[in-house]
């Protein structure tokens, strides 16, 4: 069931919202340090798959294993703790806390993990430097451009040294140039830190930054290169 | 990774649509024969009807192709008719021919621009011969994505010129991919049109 | 040459319609606003409804306040109508005996801290006058009761009260005879009451004299209570008008995109606000009318009212009807000044420049200046204009505090750095926009500061009063005094009190007049002092006696009063005869020559005793003519219902016994009712403000649905966000309370100084601070369920 050596694997996930099935027997796996693109048309269940994998929602049936632990057997608190310590997130928009400054936003996951403020903000600044946005530290998200904001979000996802980053259409609201730069920085940083990335996108050029792609169609995920 | 090589790799594939088309005529005619033996004239008419809207096939092309296929043992002559006219051969596909069509359909095309006509032909043939058109498209998508991944990788390591050239290819490939996705989404509609 | 240069319009273009006249445009835009408010879809309706309900609550309170004058008039009128008709200026004058006259005695008692008013009445003839609301005169040992008393007597657990009122109930007192529906009142019949037992003869009800004008201090208090309660209500209405403002601004931005100019958007917003306010007026009227129906059954802190008494003053009502929509429109326009509505969105401005301090300081300073000009006012001085000076100054100070608060919140919050994550989230949020929070809290500030100041004023007045009475509740908690119980009964009455459950000590004495025998001319005054008979223990409570044995007698001098000392010595000549008792036949008694002279001391009632004191072995208390008894009782407070046992004994000894509870705060009834009103009002105002804070909190949470879901995705704990919600409410409220406490104490001290009193208690603000804390807790707790709901991952799906 679980592919050899995988960090996070899901098998036969099913999830229904009302009467519409969002996932219908989807399987998925990602290895440490691997960048996997999850593609598929709108409404195919990509985001639902990502939310299930990240333990944000629980599937109706099926198993999700992370580092040998069964996710669906965990309590909500345990899954929250796992997300704080092992996972990072990048969304399309509206993810930065508008009243916190950029550096405070980046430091937020660290602080939620109990890191002291000074230390957290120092680490946050290092990551912002890697994503070339360290000069935005004291500004608020409302005062920076979309591309800059998204880089801040990427820095935030990386700041707490997660094992997996979940990125849901991270370039969806950006133009090509900014989108490319964000993807470049994200994948580079993830590869050098051996962080796995689950990248949900419907754009091929974004998916091209991955090592492998998986297509979700009608609630089923297919790994075309390895399955056939 | 030199700039010259990179641009060669790309330009060599860009302006060869005709070759690609010529190479696929044999497979296309083979595929048409799968539904039953036909005369050369029938083959030409069906081909023009389904694929040759803007460029009808020459008779000469049909017969030269058929003779090549005969020579390779992919078709055989099913019979000869001469009812008050010129002598007309009826061609039938051999088992080797069927295998050849299958292989051709399953084999993704090398991802490059201006592939649509070949891909379109393949999709229609797959639909006509009850093969999985969706699978064909998926395989092609994968191949495209793989190519895009390679180009993206090259772009990341190259200089600005490499980036610009790769981007050009990437945008074209992306357009193809979108076409593939759109076609995949419209397969049911297409099936009704080509094989009523 | 471009097309733009050509001056001639294309010939085919239709003539553009003329812009409508200004007035018509205003009407059109207002109407558009009304339509948006009324038909803006579900969201629009919710916003309008929130505003309307908020305004409605405020309007209902205002209507209630405007009914107070009528309510007080009616209550006073009924009170006057049931008072006896005075037949002369001297209140003790008895009416002549007639067929309709009635002998009565006030038997009002207290039960579980509530007053049970009552009279024992004996008709002189066959057609006795009836008090209002009573249809039949109660026979002996029967009574008519108010509905509230009937209910109280019927409730289980009130056996002690039934024991105290051992009369059969034969009728109910109608509304016309009651001050308020919750009043506890009875009229009991008697066939043994005589003038000698304290009965007072009356021959009619209805006191036609003008009531006493309110003393100036009471006017000050009343005006202040109104200000303290109504300013927050006004602030609340102003806040309610802003509910959902962000959403409205975005909608107006969409209108700008299709070509509306800024003036148009303002008028549309004004129309929306006006519609909400008008709807609020209607809802307020409904709240008021519906609430009025139930007001008779509600009793808060001993206050209740008949629905029929709640009639708003027409002038005040008209003022409300005009002022509320006008305020709504004004507030909206002022609020929109800090916002520029652009076609592509809403731009907030005013962040560049912080709030200015200087003009906010002007108001409280002006208030203090007004105090200075008004000058001090004494309790009995007649200075009709001064109360208004004090009231005006207070209004200025209170409103000034409300204005000061936003500046203070901003200044404080901007200095806050770091802290744990929830604290950081909350303070950063407040730094970004502290306006909404400060606005709501400024209502709390005015209410609390006003309440503190007024309570300090009350306390100063009460302390003054207590200083005058000098009662000492640690020595005795109850005191009784009876003229009816004399002779043998007196000593046995004291024994009965001693035997009552929970009673520790009874200072029971029998008192009679003692005078120097002889014949005196009319112009001469017979030297007279008092003879007090009691046990050694009792006498020690009344005088500084060292050695005492039964049979001893003492001459007691009032400390520090030379004249009175001389007067006592004039009467109490050792070894000589004194006459005891007044009127009738006095008893002759010889004061023993060896009686020591001692100094008197204050009894628990605060009265100094002097004269002749004798132990029970020296004078037979049972035989003193014209004696009265006086008891002062110390009880064991830990015995439940001990007060009721003692009162029951008193009622058995003599229903007409004057029996009082000594407490550290004995309030003048009028002061007490104002203080009660203040507490009721402050509670209502705090609840109102809690409601408005809750609404803005929920509004804010709903707009942050997506962000909350993202934070959940990160693995943010619920408690983290819960705490941030708490801090977000707590920081402004705590600052507001700090301002309120400081301002209230300052104002209270200033007011106490103005009325020539001293601040008696600096710690009166604790209950209000507690109420503020409860408010924080309430708002936070009620925000949590929606917060939990919004924190579900579904929020990530809404794009």
UniProtKB/TrEMBL annotation, chain A:
InterPro entries documented for this protein: AAA+_ATPase, ABC_transporter-like_ATP-bd, ABC_transpr_LolD-like, MacB-like_ATP-bd, P-loop_NTPase
Family matches, as SMART domains: AAA
Any one Pfam family match given in the protein's UniProt record, by short name: ABC_tran
Key words of the record: ATP-binding, Nucleotide-binding, Transport
Residue ranges annotated for the ABC transporter domain, each copy included: 8-228
Molecular function GO labels: ATP binding
PANTHER family noted in UniProt: ABC TRANSPORTER RELATED (PTHR24220:SF685), IMPORT ATP-BINDING PROTEIN (PTHR24220)
Protein name per Swiss-Prot or TrEMBL: ABC transporter ATP-binding protein
Native source organism of the sequence: Streptomyces rubiginosohelvolus
TrEMBL record, chain C:
Biased composition (Pro residues): 11-20
Superkingdom classification of source: Bacteria
Subcellular location: Cell membrane
Native organism: Streptomyces rubiginosohelvolus
Sequence segments annotated as region (Disordered): 1-22, 76-102
InterPro entries: ABC3_permease_C, Membrane_comp_ABC_pdt
Lineage: Bacteria, Bacillati, Actinomycetota, Actinomycetes, Kitasatosporales
Membrane topology of this protein: Multi-pass membrane protein
Protein name: Membrane protein
ABC3 transporter permease C-terminal domain segment(s): 225-338, 682-792
Keyword Amino-acid biosynthesis part of the UniProt annotation: no
Main location: membrane
Biased composition (Polar residues): 83-102
Pfam families: FtsX
Keywords: Cell membrane, Membrane, Transmembrane, Transmembrane helix
Transmembrane intervals: 45-65, 217-241, 273-295, 315-336, 357-377, 389-409, 436-458, 677-695, 733-755, 762-784
